[in-house]
Each structure stands twice: as structure tokens, then as C-alpha cells.
Queue: 2 jobs
Job 1
Amino acid sequence: MMDANTDANTITEAPAVPMPVPIPDLPATDLPATDDGRIPVTLLTGFLGAGKTTLLNHLVQQQEFAGTAVLINEFGAIGIDHHLVQHVGETLVLLESGCICCAVRGDLVAALKDLHEKLSRRQISAVRRVVIETTGLADPVPVVWTLMEERFISTRFRCDGVVSVVDASLGAAQLDAHQEARRQVALADRIVISKPDLADRSAREALEARLAALNPSAPRMTVSHGTLAPDWVTGAGIYAAAERTSRFAAWLGTEEAPAARHDDSLATFTLHFDRPVPWRGFCVALGGLLNDHGDHILRLKGLTNVAGAEGPVVVQAVGRVAYPVVRLPRWPGHTGRFDRGRFDMRGRLVFITQHLSQDQEADIRQRLAFLPDDAAALRAAATTPLLPTRCWLGARMPVVGRGGFETDGWRIQPLRLGAGSAIPA
Ligand SMILES: Nc1nc2c(ncn2[C@@H]2O[C@H](COP(=O)(O)OP(=O)(O)OP(=O)(O)O)[C@@H](O)[C@H]2O)c(=O)[nH]1
């Protein structure tokens, strides 16, 4: 049985100070980023789970994105996405705990000022571009407004465009249900349609029509697993200085910086697991939860400490859809054999929910606090054919046996053959 220490968090909580990730000691240079000297900023937006981090991960590994500073904002209490970005240019700042369009907007300004200061002092090498990945619930309007209207920022950075990622299979329903999703599309300069493999042709065509109606001027590109040509997202540049305010004032219907408001029904909470979990029990419990409460779970993501595994296992789900797990070679902060224990190896699961009742949340906490062992989980899985996490069960993962020993993928159990012998349960 496992204990899940819980730590509730809602969107009304005060934002945390941004956590700068250590910046490598690289030589400073004087290369100008753009013609007018201002550094272009790409705003990467899109609804929860649309595929923003996947796209970012691909882009920052391209030569064209060398010298890119990445700012990631997450809505849950614990940032996960920044652990998934394999190779960022030189600087990565996590704007944690809150949504960039409301609570964290001041932190965004502070982070960009900090970046500029480090550049001026030549503490970091030239930054040619900034990419801001917003939370899936962010309204991009106030963020773009901040980039364009905050005096210090707008004289040093320029908004190079809003790229909005839309999920080919879930996008239409998200556009129907969430104002934020519609605003992300409506404001986009480029629309990336992700996960074409998960939608059939008619669904893709219906989504295209919907996107065209919401934003007829933005070019659209369908992309598998984020493999987009970098030049397609750069230089969207519709926000030329001359037209910026009038364009926005018209769109917003006001000259004032807009206050972003989320639906009160949205909430987030995080569960911590103090001890490693039995993988199969964890899969079956989470699959059951997605089955029962998936309508209210907008997004689920986490790092899991699996019994017997060296590094963490990344789990993700959007609604009832569980995505294939990813095994990371080591825990964030773990740099070598000898620092074991000096970094946080607790499992953490972040839920972003809508209209989830207190009883339902309590049910989630309860079921994750008491996980079945591997053997019991496999028996349960056999009687639940539509388990959303079934694909997780196929992942090569250590098996924790009773009286046997652990191995990757196989359970080796000592068997005594002969009269009276029994196969252990
Ligand atoms: N099948 C399929 N899965 C994809 C594709 N692109 C991304 N995914 C998966 O979709 C899941 C969510 O992708 P992310 O990149 O984390 O989405 P996100 O928009 O950054 O998510 P949030 O930060 O939570 O809003 C991950 O498991 C990806 O591997 C694709 O083209 N096809």
C-alpha cells in the first residue's frame, strides 16, 4: 500500500517566484538579434496537451533555433515540461505555479528584464530569440499586450508572432468547450495542427473548417510529433510597431491591459508519492480514475518513481486518453552517482481539472493512496478491457515480486517443483 501525500493548489494561489535553471558558463558575444536590435519573441500557445512542448523540443534542437532562450509557464504547482525539453539553447526559465496571462505576468516581465540584464553584463552569450511556452489555459492576449506595451520590454524585445498548437483529434471539442482555446486560435499568426495520426480524415477536415472560420488569416500546418520546419514559425511578425496598438485595441475592444479571467470551475492539484510505486498497480489505478473521472480531468502529467527503475517515468493524459510513457535516464537534478538523495525523487502527479467535485477529488486521492501490487493489478487489468492506461502496462518496467528478485521486464520467481509445492501468488 502506498501513501500519497497531497498538496492542494488552485489557480487563486499566489504565484511562486520564477526558478531560473542554471545557465551554463558560455562566452558572451555581440551578435544583434534582429535588424532593429530587439530580440524576437515567439509565443507558443495551444490548449492543454495540444503538443506545445513536443514542438518546442523539436525546434530548440534545430540550428535555426541556436541561441534561443526558453521560458516555460505551467499551471500546476510543479513544473514538468521543462524536464522534457531535451536541449534548450542557453537559458531556460520556468515561470511556475500560476498562469502566465494572470498571476505570473509580472514574473514574465521580471524574467525578461533579468535576461536582458545578463546579456548586457555579458554573463550569457547572445540570445537570438526567446520562445515563451504558455500554459494550455493561458489567454495569449494579455501576454502579447505585455510584450508590446510594457515600456522596458517593448524597447528590447519584439513579439515575433503567436504560434498556436491545436490537437487534431481533441481540438474541435476543446474549441467548443473553452473560451481560452478559441482565443488562442483567434490570436494566432500560425496554427500548427498536431497529432494527425489520432484523427480520421473527416475529423481533420471539420477541424480545418472550424479553424478557418475562427482565424481565416493564419496559415495552418499539420505536423506529426512536432517535426516542423523552424522557418515556418519564425518571422510571423504581424505586430509591426505602427499597427500594434490599433490592432489590439480593436481586437480587445479596449485600450486597457485586459485582465485574464478563468472559469472558476478550473482547478489544479498535485499529489506527491513519498515512496516508489508498483508500476502495474499505478497504471491500473490511474486507468480506473481516467475511466471514472476523465470528463473532468483536462490534463494529467507527472514524474513517477517506479519501484526498481533508475530514472523517473513520465506519464501524461488528456481527458481519458493516456499517452505512451517516457522513461527518463535520471531524475531532474541528478548529475552523478554520488549525489543520490540530494535531489527530489518523489513521484508527483499534477491534475488540471474542470468541474471536479470535492468528492471526486477525494476519490482520486484515496485510490492513488492505496495501490494494488503488481500481481493484483494484472488480475484487475484482465477484467477491465477498456483501461485507458493499457498501453502503459506494455512498457518495459521492473517487476517487483514477492520473494523473487527484480529485473527489467521479467519476474523471476523461485519455484520449488515436486509434491506439495505451490506457486506463490
Ligand atoms: N500520437 C501523437 N502524439 C503526440 C503527437 N505530438 C505530441 N504527442 C503527444 O501528446 C502528448 C502531449 O504533448 P505535449 O507536447 O506535452 O503537450 P503540451 O501542449 O506541451 O501539454 P501542456 O504543457 O500540458 O499543455 C505527449 O504525450 C506527446 O508525446 C503526435 O503527432 N502524435
Note: The radius of gyration is 23 Å.
Job 2
Amino acid sequence: MESPADIAALATLARLEATIAQRRQADPSTSYVAKLSARGTPKIAQKVGEEAVESVIAAMADDRAGLIGESADLLFHLMVLWADKGVALADVCAELDRREGTSGIAEKASRPKA
Ligand SMILES: N=c1c2ncn([C@@H]3O[C@H](COP(=O)(O)OP(=O)(O)OP(=O)(O)O)[C@@H](O)[C@H]3O)c2ncn1[C@@H]1O[C@H](COP(=O)(O)O)[C@@H](O)[C@H]1O
């Protein structure tokens, strides 16, 4: 059973997804989403990589506030990348649901040997 905080967090992601979809069509001179989207998949993907590295650096520095800020940047840019590639938040949640209850250790052990 999800807590009210869990429901609010999911609603935040759903609202951001809708905002990104809407802002992709906006004027790139007034919208970062539109400007970044117009630069194409390689630039969006580069930003995701940069924000992931910045998140790791903040974690390794024990910088909790930095980790929260960089994680927000990472999630935002990842969601811009999903929009660019036609992936929905629900698609990613469905994949997480599919994995629920399967230990990562057991899953890895069940992979066919190369
Ligand atoms: N959550 C965010 C968000 N997080 C970070 N950013 C922007 O992401 C950018 C990242 O900064 P960087 O210095 O890394 O990027 P940069 O200098 O443009 O990149 P480079 O070309 O130098 O690589 C900054 O401009 C941040 O303001 C965001 N921009 C927008 N949103 C959300 O998207 C909505 C729509 O935004 P617009 O499309 O700008 O209206 C906003 O209302 C917010 O809800």
C-alpha cells in the first residue's frame, strides 16, 4: 500500500512528463525543453550522462543536498530523453513491475551462459 508521500512523488513525475510533452512544441527561445529537444538525441543523451556523473560525484563526496539536486537534474533530463524516444513513464514503471519480486542475484544467475 502506497503512502500519501509515495502517491505525491509519482504525481510529481507524471506532471513533469506532461509538462515536458507540452514544452517540446514550445518556442526554443523561452523553453529549455524545446531548445534541448531541438538539438536532438545525441545532445539530450549527453546531458543525461553528465547529470549521472554529477550525481555520482555528489554521492562520493557525501553531499546529500548536492545528490538531491543532481538527481533531480538527472531524472528531468532522462525524462526529456524518454519523450524524445517515445518512452512513457508508464512503460518504465511496467518494466519495474515486471521485475518486482525477482532478486537481481537470481535473475543474473538464470541468464544463459555466453
Ligand atoms: N525540471 C526542470 C529542470 N531541471 C533542470 N533544468 C534546466 O536544465 C539546464 C541544465 O543546465 P546546464 O548548465 O547543465 O545546461 P546548459 O548550459 O544548457 O547545457 P550545455 O549546452 O552547456 O551542455 C538548466 O537550464 C536548468 O534550468 C530544468 N528545466 C526545466 N525543468 C522543468 O521543465 C519545465 C519546462 O521548462 P521549460 O521548457 O524551460 O519551460 C519547467 O517548468 C520545470 O518543471
Note: Helices lie at 4-23, 32-38, 41-60, 64-85, 89-99, 104-109.
